[in-house]
Amino acid sequence: MSYIICHLSLVIFGYLLGSIPFGYLICKAKGIDIRKVGSGNIGVTNVIRALGLKWGALVGALDILKGVIPVCLAIDLLSFDWQIASVAITPVLGHIFPVWLKFKGGKGVATTLGVLFVLLGWKIFLILITVWLLVLFVFQIMSFTNLLMASLFPMVFWLSFESLAYYIFSIFLVILIWWAHRENLQRIKEGKESKFEFKKTL
Q: How far apart are CA 182 and CA 163, in angstroms?
């Protein structure tokens, strides 16, 4: 019974931690409602637009930690892949559907990076980040880069684990990220999606 309680506690903790809208809170502290700036998203890219790279980097680091902490705890305290996977998805769900902001949150990408760092290890994570940066540099469209990289998750997880639980987890992750980017996808189709300009950012 205590083992079940531990699992459920981690699921709830992961979701609530993921729900903390750091982008919104930091911008609010600076007198800005991030939901009324740029794309209206509370994530890293929009925070960079509103406050600059320094604050965007801080939000990114905090959002990544939201993914790291629950998964580390799950690996330490739980035994089965499906249990760890069920905890790993919760901070991403929390970020996209935060209870504190009426379930209207970010895209879930930074938090997903935190989850991937722990589950896949730093070597595979570094390869993914390198590819992500190259694609972003070539196309300069953040949402397109995120969607393309998310589409690779099932293959990466299958090659890394050969675990059905993690494979299903990766598919669910793809669905979540694509759903969160549905408006971006429409703008990409219409050729209206804004570009991520490295010179202005740096």
A: 29
Q: Which of 136, 146, 157, 139 is nearest to 184 (CA)?
A: 146
Q: How far is CA 191 from its chain centroid?
A: 24
Shortest CA distance to 161 belongs to which of 76, 65, 80? Answer: 80
CB burial readout 80-95, b (16+ within 10 A) else e: ebebbbbbbbbbbbbb
d(CA 123, CA 190): 37
Q: With a cut of 70, list the residues of the chain below it in pLDDT.
A: 1, 197-202
Give me the torsion for CA of 97, 100, 102, 108, rounded to 10°: -20
Whose structure tokens read 């879930």? 108
Q: How far is the C-alpha of 170 from the C-alpha of 85, rounded, in Å? A: 9
How far is 79 from 49, CA to CA, in rounded Å? 42
CA angle 23, 84, 65 (to 5 degrees): 25
- pLDDT (0 to 100) of residue 60: 95
pLDDT of res. 200: 54
